[in-house]
Design goal:
Elements (H helix, E strand, L loop, with lengths): L7 E12 L2 E6 L5 E6 L3 E6 L2 E6 L2 E5 L5 E7 L1 E11 L9 E4 L2 H16 L4 H16 L7 H13 L6 H7 L4 H12 L3 H19 L4 H7 L5 H12 L3 H7 L1
Antiparallel strand pairs: 1-8, 2-7, 3-6, 3-8, 4-5, 4-7, 6-9
């Protein structure tokens, strides 16, 4: 997926929402581009003579001005970013569906969260969509097993103390080399990725409303409430309390 590197985003809107199963229907071409990440569910698209299927973890791009037919085969949820650019057309294909990676998914989530909680934070939203373009323009390389193991360890043990030194040791690499390799494949340093995982899990717990902010801080591996609040606001633009009240 290669977007025009000279394109300038002039307006954008970002949402996370649930969608229901429905029969085939026609959608007329719109004045904005649509970029979506399907979290769950399954949908079919027809553009001219071409048919496509989008399932969980697939990205779909629909350029401005392109009409299409769509059918939802399985209900689910998705992140959707709608945006206008100059020039209007930023990709030549009518639609693309490709498997995403965790870093792209995290960027979708963060952009939609920031837009929904603080739509006026235009600069942060614009920064994130350009980061998305950059990540999707990069060539895909096979991820070495030791890097996949390290990432999986973070995903499954984020609530416990984790150091880059211990991750590097388990991968049998020096800290510097491990840090560089992790960022090469996952677009974030190990520490930045760990913070992202912790904050994303904190969001889920805040939305559930079943835990206090103090409990969530501990459950997500933060050493103090103040540090949790600092990192949460730095990454989302609002405090944990504000996020909880809005959700």
């Amino acid at each position: 997926m290669v977007f025009d590197k000279n394109a300038v985003v002039t307006e954008l809107w970002a949402y996370k929402f649930d969608y229901k199963k429905h029969n085939m229907q026609y959608v007329a071409g719109r004045e904005f581009n649509s970029l979506s990440l399907r979290i769950s569910g399954k949908a079919a698209f027809e553009v001219g003579q071409h048919a496509y299927t989008a399932k969980a973890n697939d990205i779909t791009f629909m350029p401005a001005g392109v009409g299409y037919r769509t059918r939802v085969d399985e209900s689910g949820s998705m992140y959707l970013i709608q945006f206008k650019t100059q020039p209007v057309r930023i990709y030549n294909g009518p639609i693309i569906s490709c498997v995403t990676n965790p870093e792209i998914a995290a960027a979708f989530s963060e952009l939609c969260d920031i837009y929904s909680s603080d739509g006026e934070n235009r600069y942060k939203c614009m920064s994130l969509i350009y980061s998305l373009f950059d990540m999707m323009n990069r060539p895909v390389h096979p991820i070495p097993k030791r890097m996949r193991v390290a990432k999986s360890f973070i995903d499954n043990n984020f609530s416990s103390p984790i150091s880059v030194a211990s991750l590097a040791k388990d991968a049998e690499l020096s800290e510097v080399y491990f840090r560089n390799e992790f960022k090469k494949y996952f677009s974030k340093s190990p520490l930045a990725y760990l913070k992202t995982v912790r904050v994303n899990n904190a969001k889920q717990l805040l939305r559930s409303g079943n835990c206090t902010i103090s409990e969530i801080a501990v459950m997500c591996g933060f050493e103090s409430i103040s540090y949790f609040s600092y990192e949460f606001k730095r990454m989302t633009g609002i405090s944990p309390t504000e996020y909880k009240n809005k959700n």
